């Protein structure tokens, strides 16, 4: 019975987009449709997560009753169910925020007739990517969400957004070209694009052919995940969009790339060992991203650089090639999706209330809006890794896993035949990760101190070492400040802040769930048995 729910996670958003488009200018009806669809997907994901967690396996659905590998197969295991439910909750929260913003601004930033259908199509692409059982369907999921993201990124039609959109489109097309080329080569070498079947057939190829195919896929997914040195495009693309769009992009789109990398390492190439490469890239992503954040005066660009930087934690966890490292990575992905989305929504409130997002133009916000001060402070400290928040717990989990891998702890379970990288390299990345956390905390505390604690009367002529080294965003501009903020925007942001706190309160059960999901990924045969219960040739 629950098998029938799996396709609905993609079908409902697509049908909802069609209905929203037909409703045209009936704004309230469109809002109701979008909200109902995302709430339904979140409920379905919760049901499926409960079932696959209880069974310890997963669900595979053959679309159109065409058996795999001949038809499209949708697969839900613990990891994909976790990703869908957290994504649906974020998409729902951002939608409520966008509705509140649209009502207040007469839908200048998010025109209803365009925004809601496109937003639901983006959601369908994200959900499809998480449950795709073959590489081509994964590619289709990427293209659906990317096509929708082009529209959302350029809403408003300003010159800055068009320029950012062009950059984003070019980079995305290059990524898609790598991915499509990799799929063609994989199919030519193995005769299939089914992920479960590829898990068996790729292992039969010569090692040099495997390495080429592996690296092609990692380049494609690395661009989407914004890992160094493939992250140059992100800080100039995301900050230009409306606040709800930026929040969704920052919270979800890069994590789809991270998810694809996890699948690649645990199912497609479980016998390949690129741990050292992952550790090096993870360390560089951490360092380069946070150094970029230090120089930013604009909070949107600062958060964009921290987004790049904290992807490094996830790449580091994958590079540990252990069940514990992967479990900590899954927990950190959940944390980062929620906290990064919440911070960008709060930044939208700051821009409305203060008229700018630059620390050189903001002051006195704590006195003017104590609630806004709290809404920014809590997720900022969470991202900075202050105990006992989920950011601290996730980083500790990663560092402890790194220490166990470097120390050769007997209880450490590895993924497939992979082995962790050199001990000195693991300890180096752990040190970089700890330093990155401290620098993240410094950068966010600097912004909070100047924007919220500094009296507004001191803005003119203000000089401080805190801002002497920062630079403004290109084409940065002020907006008209509105001292009243719609209730829906505040309520949505507060709800997501509460969700980030729940990740701390329920960290124990979430870590256990993440560990069970990682345990499923320890052996690729678990995924294969979900799709082919009788075995695969």
3D structure, described in words:
It is a single chain. With 537 residues, this protein is mainly alpha-helical. It contains 21 helices and 2 strands. Strands 1-2 form a two-stranded antiparallel ribbon. The longest helix has 32 residues, at 159-190. It is globular and about 75 Å long. The chain starts with a helix and ends in a 6-residue tail after the last helix. The mean pLDDT is 85. Belongs to the CPA3 antiporters (TC 2.A.63) subunit D family. The chain crosses the membrane at residues 6-24, 36-67, 79-100, 112-132, 138-156, 168-189, 209-234, 241-262, 274-295, 302-324, 371-389, 424-445, 487-511. One of its GO terms (molecular function) is NADH dehydrogenase (ubiquinone) activity.
What secondary-structure arrangement, pairings included, does this model have?
Elements: H1 5-23, H2 27-55, E1 59-62, E2 73-76, H3 78-105, H4 112-131, H5 135-153, H6 159-190, H7 195-201, H8 207-225, H9 234-237, H10 243-268, H11 275-294, H12 299-319, H13 323-354, H14 365-368, H15 370-384, H16 390-407, H17 423-453, H18 465-468, H19 487-505, H20 507-522, H21 524-531
Antiparallel strand pairs: 1-2
Helix pairs in contact: 1-2, 1-4, 2-3, 2-4, 3-4, 3-10, 3-13, 3-19, 4-5, 5-6, 5-10, 6-8, 7-21, 8-10, 10-12, 10-13, 11-12, 11-17, 12-13, 12-17, 13-15, 13-16, 13-19, 13-20, 15-17, 15-19, 16-17
- Structural class designation: mainly alpha
Could you give the order of strands across the largest sheet?
A: 1-2
Shape: globular
Instruction: Identify low-pLDDT runs.
Output: none
Count of DSSP helices?
21
Helix content: over 70%
Residue fraction in strands:
under 5%
Domain NADH:quinone oxidoreductase/Mrp antiporter transmembrane: 132-404
GO cellular component, one term: plasma membrane
Subcellular location: Cell membrane; Membrane
Family: Belongs to the CPA3 antiporters (TC 2.A.63) subunit D family.
């Amino acid at each position: 019975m629950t098998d029938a729910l799996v396709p609905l996670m993609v079908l409902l958003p697509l049908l909802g987009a069609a209905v929203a488009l037909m409703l045209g200018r009936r704004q309230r009806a469109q809002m109701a449709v979008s909200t109902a669809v995302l709430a339904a997907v979140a409920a379905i994901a919760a049901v499926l997560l409960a079932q696959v967690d209880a069974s310890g396996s997963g669900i595979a659905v053959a679309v159109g009753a065409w058996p795999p590998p001949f038809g499209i197969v949708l697969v839900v295991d613990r990891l994909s169910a976790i990703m869908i439910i957290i994504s649906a909750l974020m998409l729902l929260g951002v939608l409520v925020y966008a509705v509140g913003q649209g009502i207040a601004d007469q839908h200048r930033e998010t025109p209803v007739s365009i925004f809601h259908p496109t937003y639901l199509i983006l959601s369908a692409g994200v959900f499809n990517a998480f449950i795709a059982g073959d590489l081509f369907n994964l590619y289709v999921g990427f293209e659906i969400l990317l096509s929708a993201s082009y529209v959302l990124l350029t809403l408003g039609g300003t010159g800055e957004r068009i320029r950012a959109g062009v950059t984003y489109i070019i980079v995305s097309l290059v990524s898609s070209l790598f991915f499509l080329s990799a799929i063609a080569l994989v199919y030519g070498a193995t005769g299939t694009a089914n992920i479960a079947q590829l898990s068996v057939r790729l292992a039969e190829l010569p090692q040099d052919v495997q390495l080429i195919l592996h690296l092609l896929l990692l380049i494609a997914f690395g661009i989407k995940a914004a890992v160094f040195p493939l992250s140059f495009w992100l800080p100039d693309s995301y900050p230009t969009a409306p606040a709800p769009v930026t929040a969704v992009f920052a919270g979800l789109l890069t994590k789809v790339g991270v998810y694809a990398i996890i699948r690649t390492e645990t199912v497609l190439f479980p016998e390949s060992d690129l741990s050292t490469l992952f550790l090096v890239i993870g360390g560089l992503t951490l360092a380069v991203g946070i150094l970029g954040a230090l120089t930013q005066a604009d909070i949107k660009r600062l958060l964009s650089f921290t987004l790049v930087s904290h992807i490094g934690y996830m790449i580091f966890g994958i590079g540990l090639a252990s069940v514990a490292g992967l479990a900590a990575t899954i927990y950190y992905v959940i944390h980062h999706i929620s906290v990064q989305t919440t911070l960008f929504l709060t930044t939208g409130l700051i821009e409305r209330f203060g008229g700018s997002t630059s620390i050189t133009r903001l002051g006195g916000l704590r006195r003017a809006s104590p609630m806004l001060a709290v809404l920014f402070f809590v997720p900022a400290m969470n991202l900075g890794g202050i105990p006992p928040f989920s950011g601290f717990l996730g980083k500790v989990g990663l560092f402890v896993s790194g220490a166990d891998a470097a120390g050769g702890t007997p209880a450490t379970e590895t993924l497939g035949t992979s082995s962790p990288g050199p001990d000195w390299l693991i300890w180096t990345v752990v040190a970089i990760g700890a330093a990155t956390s401290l620098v993240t905390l410094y950068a966010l505390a600097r912004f909070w101190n100047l924007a919220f604690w500094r009296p507004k009367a001191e803005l003119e002529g203000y000089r401080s070492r805190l801002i002497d080294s920062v630079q403004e965003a290109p084409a940065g501009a002020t907006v008209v400040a509105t001292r009243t903020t719609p209730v829906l925007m505040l309520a949505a942001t507060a709800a997501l802040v509460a969700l980030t706190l729940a990740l701390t309160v329920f960290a124990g059960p979430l870590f256990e769930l993440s560990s069970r999901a990682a345990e499923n990924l320890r052996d690729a045969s678990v995924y294969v048995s979900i799709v082919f219960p009788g075995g695969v040739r």
